[in-house]
Amino acid sequence: MTREGKAVQVKRGIYAVFLSTLLICAVLLTGCGGGALAGTWSSTDGSEVLVFENDGTCSVPFTYDAGWLESCDRYSIESDGTLVLSSSKGNIDAERYKKQDSEEAVQNDGGYYLSGNTLVLRDFRTVRTYTRQ
Hints:
Layout lengths: L2 H27 L9 E5 L5 E4 L5 E2 L14 E4 L5 E4 L8 E3 L5 H7 L1 E5 L2 E6 L2 E7 L1
Antiparallel strand pairs: 1-2, 1-9, 2-3, 4-5, 5-6, 7-8, 8-9
């Protein structure tokens, strides 16, 4: 093989490593938010609206803490599917919701269930159901 041929192979190898690294970073960053949860969700009675943005920001009124005058405004989905709601101000504790396989599991064990345009989650003892708008 010529010297020029080896240089071309090295360049191709470096290019392949670079593209692989970019792909891995893109996959890892999707855990910050977005995906199937992104969008606007309205409670079944219309009294509450949740908003999850692709960039990991959110508006989740039921997490409001009057003592700190703030609510969770960030979310992420962990590798096991757990939904984590947190505050960028850091004054209130993050809330974690385990991903469940059914609405019944949410009612019995807590967590959240997402199927198409329906989101069900249990906050303390309250089961909340939302529909994607």
